[in-house]
Each structure stands twice: as C-alpha cells, then as structure tokens.
Amino acid sequence: MQLVELITQAVSGLGYELVDFETSPRARLLRVFVDRLPGQGSVSIDDCTAVSNHLTRLFAVENVDYDRLEVSSPGLDRPLKKLADWQRYAGEDVQLKLRVPVGNQRNFGGQIVGLSGEQVVVKIEGEDRVFPLEGIEKARLVPKF
User: Is the Cα torsion angle 84, 87, 88, 90 positive or negative in sign?
Assistant: First the structure.
C-alpha cells in the first residue's frame, strides 16, 4: 500500500479528512495536514495530537521509515486539491496558479462559484471563468480577517 493511501485510510478512520501530505527528500520528514469533516468545526491541537499518536503507532507496525512526523491543520489559507474542496468552499475567495498560462497569465484571484462537471468555476472581475482541475498547479483560499 502506498504511504499516502495508508495515511488517508488511517486519518479517515479517525473521522478526519487528509488535506495534503508532503515529504522531504528521502521521506525523512512526513508532514500531514488534516481537517475535520464538513460541518464539524475546525481542527484543534488535541486533534493533531490524536492523529500524530495514531500515525506513529501505525508507522511502527507498517515499518514506515522516517525521522520526524508533523501533523497540522491546513490553516486559514487552506489548499484546494480535490473537486469536493471546490464545491465545499463555494463563495470563498481563492488564489490559483495554472500549470500552463492562459494568454500570458498564470495567476488568478476570484471567488469560487463551484463546479461544472470536472472543471472549476471561479468568478474573476465579474466574469465566470472555467478551469480544468488538472490544469491548476496550486490553489489556496484567501483568508478574510
């Protein structure tokens, strides 16, 4: 089983959602970002501790070799990775970077409208723009203070 699949299964079994997963070169550092399921509030330090303890035991059983494990919330500028993220955060402001420029522009900011099939719809300067999910290199929510 791939490491990301192992982590996804473990985190979802605890009632959380795996938002993102990063490794350092040679996978010595494992960084896991978790969130609560929709409608269950935000992640606390106790949640991160519970996930960290569970993953530490799981990695010992599965012989996963690493030096350091970090478990964190995704933060206010949460990355958007899956189609479900775009639907969940409809109405929120987003900053996105495309893999390939449209015209001469790769970076866009606007408000998430939702989905159109497998494509993301974002309102930019009053106009709905459609982007294929696989064409988006990075996307993050823009926090409101």
Answer: positive
Residue owning tokens 């550092």: 29
> How does strand 93-102 pair with strand 105-116?
antiparallel
Q: Report the predicted TM-score, pTM, of the whole model to 2 decimal places.
A: 0.84
- Domain closes at, from 47, 72, 97: 72
Tokens of 111: 């408000």
Q: What share of the chain is helix, strand, coil (3-state, %, to 5)?
A: 30, 45, 30
12 and 65 fall within a common domain: yes
Q: What is the pLDDT of residues 24-80, one digit of tens each?
A: 877 689 999 999 988 888 899 999 999 999 999 999 999 988 899 999 999 999 999
Could you give the number of structural domains in the chain? 2
Residues 7, 65, single domain; the answer is yes
DSSP 56-101: HHHHHHHT---SEEEEE---TT-B--SHHHHHHTTTSEEEEEEEEE
User: In degrees, to the nearest 5, what angle opens at C-alpha 78 toward C-alphas 75 and 84?
Assistant: 140
| CATH number of the domain encompassing residue 131 | 2.30.30.100
